[in-house]
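> call design_seq(struct)
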C-alpha cells in the first residue's frame, strides 16, 4: 500500500505526456512465434466459407442441407464417468427418404432397394453415432455415413460383355470338372488302401 501514491503519480505523468497509448499499442502488438502470420507468411488468413454451387453433371456432389434433416442429441451410452449423464453427445439423424428432394430420384430408389429394411414405418431413414464424446464429431460421423450410403447407391454396376460371361462360365465348368476328378482319384486311393475281402479272393 505504501507504493500506491507513487504508482498513481507515475500513471498520471504517463497520461499527461500521451505515452500511455504508445505503451498500450506496444503491449497489444506482441505476436507469438507460432502465430498464423509466422507459420503461414504468404497466406491471406481470410477464413471464408465457400458458397455451394451445384454441378448438373454429377449425380451427388456430397452437399447435404442440414436444415432438411431432423437432428436430435441424447446422452451417450458406454464408459465416460459422470460426463455421460451431463452431456448429450449421441447424435440421432433422420429424414424421410421419399421427401428428400436433395437426393436424385434414381439414387433414392436404389437406396430404398438396398436399405429398405432399415426404414421405419413412417418412412424415416435413421443414422446414429456415439463413437466420440463430442457432439460435433458425432454429427460429422453421421453425415459421412450418409454420404457413403448415397455414393454407394449412386454407383451403377457395369454389366459384363457376353464374351466375358461365357469365359467365366467356362472357368467355373472347368473348375467343377477338376474338383470331381480329384474327388474320384481320392476315392480310388482310399479303395486301394482297404484290405482284400472274401469276395475279392
Amino acid at each position: 500500500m505504501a507504493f500506491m501514491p507513487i504508482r498513481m503519480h507515475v500513471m498520471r505523468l504517463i497520461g499527461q505526456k500521451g505515452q500511455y497509448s504508445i505503451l498500450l499499442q506496444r503491449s497489444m502488438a506482441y505476436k507469438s512465434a507460432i502465430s498464423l502470420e509466422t507459420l503461414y507468411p504468404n497466406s491471406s488468413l481470410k477464413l471464408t466459407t465457400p458458397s455451394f454451387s451445384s454441378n448438373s453433371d454429377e449425380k451427388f456432389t456430397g452437399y447435404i442441407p442440414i436444415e432438411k434433416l431432423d437432428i436430435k442429441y441424447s446422452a451417450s451410452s458406454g464408459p465416460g464417468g459422470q460426463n455421460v449423464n451431463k452431456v448429450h453427445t449421441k447424435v440421432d439423424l433422420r429424414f424421410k427418404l421419399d421427401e428428400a428432394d436433395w437426393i436424385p430420384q434414381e439414387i433414392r430408389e436404389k437406396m430404398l432397394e438396398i436399405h429398405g429394411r432399415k426404414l421405419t414405418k413412417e418412412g424415416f431413414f435413421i443414422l446414429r453415432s456415439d463413437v466420440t464424446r463430442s457432439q460435433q464429431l458425432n454429427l460429422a460421423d453421421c453425415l459421412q455415413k450418409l454420404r457413403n450410403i448415397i455414393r454407394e447407391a449412386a454407383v451403377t454396376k457395369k454389366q459384363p460383355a457376353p464374351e466375358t460371361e461365357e469365359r467365366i462360365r467356362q472357368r467355373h465348368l472347368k473348375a467343377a470338372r477338376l474338383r470331381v476328378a480329384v474327388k474320384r482319384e481320392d476315392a480310388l486311393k482310399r479303395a486301394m488302401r482297404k484290405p482284400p475281402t472274401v469276395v475279392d479272393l
